[in-house]
Specification:
The chain is mostly beta strands. The chain is 2% helix and 29% strand. The strands form 5 sheets. Strands 7, 10, 13, 14, 15 and 17 form a 6-stranded antiparallel β-sheet that branches. Strands 8, 9, 11, 12 and 16 form a 5-stranded antiparallel β-sheet that branches. It has a two-stranded antiparallel ribbon with strand order 1-2. The N and C termini lie far apart (103 Å).
Length: 306
């Protein structure tokens, strides 16, 4: 269309106007509206205006924008209360953190990991062996392990005869077997007992001779308590019986007495497979020994673990 049309009063072009009713100008007045075009000379394309305003096409144009302060990143236009997704299947898996907080679980594909190699203990994460872990091979190496357990005998000084049980109670139902809880490296682990030590809380050594009987199941105390015949216990518990260590002499010190012994068999050791990680034992008196009142016996067992 032509630009800058000259208009002579009384002569010339007809100028169009719109008749409108306006709250300010009045009713039936004639007004002219400004028409917004595309901005090119002699252009005929009108700008698009709708209820939300003037439409602007920014395709192909760079629009600079700046913002200062803290930015909040959230999914969509809603508050950040819904779980983010990595695909269109499900929300991320959230686990329980400390203090009631939530932590994001991350699944690591071990096929994408390079070999970690060997590190020192200080530079390695601690690992707890499962309670039902089968025996872990150690390349043929064995470990020497010592474990202790204690008997506090009854508050009397009744002499023992050879072949009687030394225990914490004269009542069968109250007798506690010795438990060596670390002789096996893992649950159901194996090894060999190579020796034992007895330390007692008195320094009396007269007739202080003892035999330690070992079991991989808890011995059965049916009628036997302290001072009763050991044969009742051993025979009743024969199914889990492993062998024994004799301590035939002891050395007296100023405060305690101490003695050591080794398995009395041709193998020189007592093989075992533990129940869980525990080996059990009872003590037999092998001489006419007069004990101390509430005397304490600490038994140490030494083994080589597989």
């Amino acid at each position: 269309m032509a630009d800058n049309v000259n208009i002579t009063p009384g002569v010339g072009a007809t100028v169009a106007a719109d008749q409108v009713n306006d709250g300010v100008l009045g009713s039936g007045v004639y007004v002219q509206y400004v028409k917004l075009m595309d901005g090119t000379i002699d252009g005929t394309t009108k700008a698009t205006v709708n209820a939300t305003g003037l439409k602007f096409d920014a395709s192909g144009a760079a629009i600079p924008a700046t913002q200062s302060g803290t930015w909040t990143v959230q999914p969509g236009n809603t508050a950040n209360t819904t779980a983010w997704k990595t695909d269109d299947s499900a929300a991320w898996d959230k686990g329980s953190g400390t203090g009631g907080s939530l932590t994001q679980r991350i699944i690591v594909d071990n096929s994408q990991l390079a070999a970690l190699g060997q590190a020192t203990m200080a530079n390695s994460a601690p690992v707890v062996v499962a309670s039902d872990q089968s025996t872990i091979k150690t390349g043929g190496n064995t470990i020497t392990q010592a474990s202790s357990s204690t008997i506090t005998r009854p508050a009397n000084a009744t002499p023992y005869a050879s072949g009687q049980l030394l225990a914490n109670s004269v009542t069968a139902g109250s007798v506690n077997a010795l438990q060596f809880s670390t002789l096996a490296r893992v649950s159901g682990g194996s090894g060999v007992i190579t020796g034992a030590v007895i330390q007692k809380s008195t320094n009396t050594i007269t007739n202080a001779a003892f035999r330690i009987h070992y079991f991989n199941t808890i011995p059965t105390f049916v009628t036997a308590g302290d001072g009763s015949a050991i044969s009742t216990v051993v025979q009743a518990s024969g199914k889990g019986y492993l062998g024994y260590v004799d301590i035939i002499t002891m050395t007296g010190f100023s405060d305690v007495a101490w003695g050591t012994g080794a398995p009395d068999n041709t193998r020189g050791c007592i093989p075992y497979v533990a129940t869980a990680q525990i080996i059990y034992a009872i003590v037999e008196v092998r001489g006419a020994y007069t004990p101390g009142n509430a005397e304490i016996f600490t038994i140490y067992t030494v083994a080589l673990q597989d």
